[in-house]
Amino acid sequence: MASVTTERGLREATRPTWAEISLANLRHNFRSLREHVGKAVNICAVVKADAYGHGALQCALALEREGATWFGVTSLDEAIPLREAGIKGRILLMTGFWPGEERELLQLHLTPTVWSVEQVALLEKASSGQSRCGVHVKVDTGMGRLGVTLEELPRLLASLKSSPHLFLEGLSTHLASSEALDEASVDEQLKIFEDARATVQNADFKSPIIHVANSCAILSRPQSWNDMVRPGIALYGAALPLQRGGREIDDPVLPLKPVLSWKTRILSLREMPAGQALGYNGTYSTKLPSCIAVLPVGYADGLNRRLSSRGRVLLRGQYAPIVGRISMDLTLIDVTAIPGATVGDEVILIGKSGEAEITAREHAMLAGTIPYEVLCAISKRVPRRYSS
Length: 388
Hints:
Elements: E1 3-5, E2 11-13, E3 17-22, H1 23-37, E4 42-46, H2 48-53, H3 56-66, E5 70-73, H4 76-84, E6 90-93, H5 102-107, E7 111-114, H6 117-127, E8 133-138, H7 153-161, E9 166-172, H8 184-202, E10 209-211, H9 215-220, E11 228-229, E12 243-244, E13 247-248, E14 260-265, E15 268-272, E16 277-278, E17 284-285, E18 290-295, E19 312-315, E20 318-323, E21 331-334, E22 346-353, E23 356-358, H10 360-367, H11 371-376, E24 384-387
Parallel strand pairs: 3-24, 4-5, 4-11, 5-6, 6-7, 7-8, 8-9, 9-10
Antiparallel strand pairs: 1-2, 3-14, 12-13, 14-22, 15-18, 16-17, 18-21, 19-20, 19-22, 20-21, 22-23
Helix pairs in contact: 1-3
């Protein structure tokens, strides 16, 4: 069996199921977003969750070459490989740090997000004898997750004032419903955040970097752009789940290109009689004599089980339905209507063939989820192949 060198430098046996990552499309999307927000607004390229399943190391390196100076990750464990790979830009720990990680994050010149006086105390103690460390304060404006409340903010600012090795570099929040274009709670969150900015200003701090907007807000709410924006899924070219009146709408005109295609090959072909039950529990039976192909991909690879007998694939430029239940390692498709289908043929799970296309958004709609989850769910056992 053939082998391939992974990004970790290991040689592993390949499976005939893989994802193709276009770094050219990634760079195009970064340029498009930069043109959209203008030169005065910085971009923090969010590469958390292994760059939404696209591969954080390769994507961050390509984005840095394209001019990205900030990167957003979830935590220290996601930041370490970026530094080891040579990423020199600023890395924002978007969900803070665990006690005990503060010395390492300082050594790696990472930028922590904080929301409590306890975090400030830990950083101040670890920073003694080192150059001053900039922190970004996160404000909870209604999301109910992480962040300091307006009531607690003065106490947090006082703790920063009394910490000589720290300084307030950034102020941020996260919008709960930025994809809903007519959601009144977004305006309320922005108003609360403005109150937080006024509190910081009245406490006599120098103007920090202000950042609020995620991908959906970048496309729909220019008033939220401020000094820096944090695109995630928009970088990777997936359709955003924008809504109006509770219904999804097409994206605003922004020339983003899908970065990921997901492919496999036909493993086996069998002629089946009418009435043949297929797959676990026989949930699907052929209605006519049929040609059924077996694909070496399943839910262990990230193909959502809810696509069973609902989803479709592309073969030779034509759609072929998924039939029966998707299993851990195998999926069945009906290729009766596709002449010449043969073992080894390339099959597209997500991607384009001629004018026909299957998107992460299509998978998400059929599975009752969102494109973010579809992309992040593509498992580690699916090799990523990069093109520049």
